[in-house]
């Protein structure tokens, strides 16, 4: 790919799969967004929307996997965009990289904040006198980011071990939650309950309300580009990285559907639980009692913490690669690698600091924080769409060992179409009446990011950034390898 090796290849096939599976994290995604789905479509959209969106995400993942096999680098999406573009390679690479960077940072921040919210819910259940405040949520999030940064500072081997543990935590945890919800409650909803439709979004158009409910699944299925970003640290990356992407999406789709059904059928008092501060927690309490609910809540919190750790790892590799090509302020700092641990330590702390900056508005306003981190999904999926779109325009695309053959362009067209639709949904109003507290600030936040990137591009970046840098011929690059 034109770069000297600075990172060690310690990730095996399972490790590469584990990072995307952990970032997707069905437990974290479903529990953090289930309440929104209860209002936007109810069980019908939660269950059947999960199936439909999972299929669409498989199309996106397959297209990304094909590109990952051809360009297995830490730069992932922005690198492949620069290579696949016919013209203006620097610009395509620039915008893809910044969309991916903002989406990655937003994901790390959002996961940490969600974990902090559920930690406070547990503390309030354990000690009724405990007062849940926005300030404490921010402080707990900061502590979580600190611990995750410390874990990522040490060797790639440690991160790989943590991700292996996280896979089993997710799978065993999911089985425990599902079995307890299936066996323990005295009664469940009838089989036909999955067709129950609810529209409490405030919008009179039921179709619009149901379409908004698809965001529950879209929010969950983010971050599977983590396998792509870890390519330079994965053995046989041209095969194991694309397989990691596809396995992570496929296994998450199946296990997530099982977990979704378990929660839906455990609902007792729909209106009461949908109106609770944390609807899935209230469902657990009503169905199982406080003691059992607290145990299951610990499983959920653990899953969220593992998810944040993997998010930060992926985020760090994107920063490392983007800086390696001189696309970030202080690039010399951020692409340096510790000689002792062979990890981009400075990039780790930049990822943690940027995530904390996004969390800070939550000190004063939960709405402001939600608006900023909404860019996570839009930024990530738009960065997914760009290289797929460019691959569709390229007649002489050279695939890697893992490819879709003659189905490549058809799959890519479906993937780009779905990304456009889901991105529009994320930027439309999510509740009515539209007020300062219910307004969806995501399009404004995204516009600000794109405006800054555009001004920066035309002011100076276009003269010095021409896309991915090549350090020389393969033999010259091999002679530069630092490990």
3D structure, described in words:
The protein has 483 residues and is mainly α. It has one domain: Amino acid/polyamine transporter I, CATH 1.20.1740.10. Helix content is 71%, strand content 1%. It is built from 21 helices and 2 strands. The chain has helices at residues 13-24, 26-39, 42-70, 76-84, 89-126, 134-153, 156-183, 206-213, 215-220, 226-229, 237-266, 270-274, 279-288, 290-324, 331-334, 345-359, 366-373, 375-393, 408-427, 442-464, 474-480; strands at residues 40-41, 198-199. It is globular, with a radius of gyration of 22 Å.
Write the CATH architecture name: Up-down Bundle
The CATH top-level class label:
Mainly Alpha
* Fraction of residues in β-strands: under 5%
Kindly provide the radius of gyration, computed on alpha-carbon positions and rounded to a whole number of angstroms. Answer: 22 Å
Order of helices and strands: HHEHHHHHEHHHHHHHHHHHHHH
Q: pLDDT under 50 segments (min length 5)? A: 479-483
CATH superfamily label: Amino acid/polyamine transporter I
Give the oligomeric state: single chain
Largest sheet: 2 strands, antiparallel
**N- to C-terminal separation?**
16 Å
Structural class: mainly alpha
Discrete helix count: 21
Shape, please? globular
Mean pLDDT: 87
Q: How many strand elements?
A: 2
Helix content: over 70%
Strand arrangement, largest sheet?
1-2
Number of domains: 1
Kindly report the CATH topology: Amino acid/polyamine transporter I
């Amino acid at each position: 790919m034109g770069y000297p090796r600075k990172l060690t290849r310690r990730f095996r096939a399972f490790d590469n799969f584990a990072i995307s599976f952990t970032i997707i994290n069905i437990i974290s995604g479903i529990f953090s967004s289930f309440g929104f789905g209860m209002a936007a479509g109810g069980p019908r959209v939660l269950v059947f929307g999960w199936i439909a969106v999972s299929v669409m995400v498989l199309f996106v993942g397959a297209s990304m996997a094909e590109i990952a096999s051809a360009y297995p680098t830490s730069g992932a999406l922005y690198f492949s965009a620069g290579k696949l573009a016919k013209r203006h390679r620097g610009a395509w690479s620039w915008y893809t990289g910044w969309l991916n960077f903002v989406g990655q940072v937003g994901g790390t921040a959002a996961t940490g904040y969600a974990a902090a919210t559920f930690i406070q819910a547990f503390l309030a259940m354990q000690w009724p006198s405990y007062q849940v405040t926005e300030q404490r949520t921010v402080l707990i999030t900061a502590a979580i980011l600190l611990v995750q940064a410390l874990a990522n500072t040490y060797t790639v081997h440690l991160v790989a071990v943590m991700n292996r543990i996280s896979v089993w935590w997710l799978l065993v945890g999911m089985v425990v939650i599902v079995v307890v919800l299936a066996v323990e409650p005295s009664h469940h909803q009838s089989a036909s309950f999955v067709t129950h439709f609810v529209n409490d979004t405030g919008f009179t158009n039921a179709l619009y309300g149901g379409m908004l409910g698809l965001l529950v699944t879209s929010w969950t299925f983010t971050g599977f580009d983590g396998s792509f970003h870890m390519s330079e640290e994965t053995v046989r990356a041209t095969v194991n990285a694309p397989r990691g992407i596809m396995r992570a999406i496929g296994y998450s789709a199946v296990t997530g559907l099982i977990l979704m059904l378990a929660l839906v059928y455990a609902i007792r008092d729909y209106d009461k639980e949908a109106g609770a501060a944390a609807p899935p927690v209230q469902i657990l309490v009503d169905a199982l009692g406080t003691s059992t609910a607290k145990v299951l809540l610990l499983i959920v919190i653990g899953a969220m913490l593992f998810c944040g750790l993997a998010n930060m790892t992926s985020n760090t590799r994107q920063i490392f690669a983007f800086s390696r090509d001189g696309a970030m302020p202080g690039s010399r700092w951020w692409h340096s690698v510790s000689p002792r641990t062979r990890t981009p330590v400075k990039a780790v702390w930049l990822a943690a600091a940027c995530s904390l900056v996004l969390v800070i508005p939550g000190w004063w306003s939960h709405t402001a924080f939600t608006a900023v981190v909404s860019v996570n999904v839009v930024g990530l999926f738009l960065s997914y769409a760009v290289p797929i779109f460019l691959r569709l325009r390229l007649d002489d695309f050279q695939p890697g060992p893992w490819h879709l053959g003659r189905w490549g362009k058809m799959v890519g067209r479906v993937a780009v179409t779905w990304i456009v639709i889901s991105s529009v949904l994320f930027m439309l109003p999510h509740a009515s009446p539209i007020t300062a507290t219910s307004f969806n600030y995501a399009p404004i936040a995204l516009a600000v990011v794109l405006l800054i990137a555009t001004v920066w591009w035309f002011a100076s970046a276009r003269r010095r950034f021409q896309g991915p840098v090549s350090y020389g011929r393969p033999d010259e690059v091999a002679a530069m390898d630092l490990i």
